[in-house]
Amino acid sequence: MKILVTGANGFIGQSLCAYLKEKGHVVQAAVRRHARIFSVVDEYIQIGDINESTDWQKALINVDIVIHLAARVHVMIDSAGDDLEAFRKVNVFGTERLARMAARSGVKRFIFISSVKVNGEGSGMPYTEKDPPAPEDAYGISKQQAEDLLACVAAETGLQTVVLRIPLVYGQGVKANFKNLMKIVASGLPLPLKGLDNHRSFVYLGNLMDAINVCMVHPLAAGETFIVSDGQDISIADLIKMIARAMNKKLILFSLHPAVLMWLCAMAGKKEEIKKMTGSLLVDCSKINNLLGWKPRFLMEEGIAETVARYLKNDKADI
């Protein structure tokens, strides 16, 4: 099949394009501008800014499936109102524009990569697709609104849409908090995280790509929303231990009262980062397991080992 991948030069997009080529597909990559060219892609198309006026016509020629990864994510802006509107411009109206043009171009299926932030920022029970949406930030709100508009486009045009809500993704090329965590473990510094009893869901890049592959072709996936994860929920302390084992590093953990830890991180300007890492956020991916028969191909230990190996190979200068 000919597949259009948006956000193709991003963390997920680069690996997804390579994966799809290995599966024998023709991969058309849409990027905003100044793309670094990868040999695995059949063609790159620069589409400029993503909004309600983006011209996707050239990128959609003879395309069978669209996998929409491109999004505005985690950009800090002073004004909350401007913040939401900036997210909506790309994530809501840009997504609707692409979906409507895809339907007119004869695209069969549209896979939208959403986020568990549509469900919320964490609760006492694992999130499911049946839970009422409760996004708390501009990114989550924009993803929920995009999901709603996609449902309208599907009803009006017959375009088959599949929504995948994902938690934190890790794997080759991971950045932000997960990469910082690997840097800290590699440094060998003692960490004040012993005894923290949080639990979080993650999804390894290899498992996510496998789930996307199933959703591309499974007839029962059309019109559905799925939560995808590794199916293993662990604490931040256990995650660090797993990373340390993969690095063959001796790990020193000690206890610090959570309030003191939060205060110290706030003083260092890292309050939000530590809240994300030490809070709990669980998901239940039994719907995709039961309806599509999809199960994670890789254990979390395998995914962590591969992620660490790639990090040590490519980022030795950071250690």
Structural descriptors:
7-stranded parallel β-sheet; 10 strands; 10 helices; 319 residues
Layout of helices and strands:
Blueprint: E1 2-6, H1 11-22, E2 26-31, E3 43-46, E4 65-68, H2 80-104, E5 109-115, H3 138-157, E6 160-166, E7 168-170, H4 176-187, E8 200-204, H5 205-217, E9 225-227, E10 233-234, H6 236-247, H7 258-267, H8 271-278, H9 286-292, H10 300-314
Structure description:
This protein is an alpha/beta fold and 319 residues long. It folds into 2 domains: 2-166, 3-Layer(aba) Sandwich (Rossmann fold), CATH 3.40.50.720; 176-200 and 234-281 and 299-318. Helix content is 42%, strand content 14%. The strands form 2 sheets. Strands 3-2-1-4-5-6-9 form a 7-stranded parallel beta sheet, sandwiched between helices. Strands 7-8-10 form a 3-stranded mixed beta sheet. The longest helix is centred in the N-terminal third of the chain and has 25 residues, at 80-104. The chain starts with a strand and ends in a 5-residue tail after the last helix.
Kindly estimate the percentage of residues that lie in beta strands according to DSSP.
Answer: 5-15%
What structural class should be given to the helix and strand makeup? alpha/beta
Whole-number mean pLDDT: 88
CATH superfamily name of the largest domain? Answer: NAD(P)-binding Rossmann-like Domain
The description of the largest β-sheet is: 7 strands, parallel
Strand order of the largest sheet: 3-2-1-4-5-6-9
Instruction: Using the coordinates shown, work out and report the CATH topology of the largest domain.
Output: Rossmann fold
Number of strands: 10
In CATH, the architecture of the largest domain is 3-Layer(aba) Sandwich
Give the topology string: H per helix, E per strand.
EHEEEHEHEEHEHEEHHHHH
Under CATH at level 1, the class of the largest domain stands as Alpha Beta
Percent in helix: 40-55%
Number of helices: 10
User: Whole-Å distance between the termini?
Assistant: 42 Å
Q: Name the poorly predicted regions.
A: 76-81
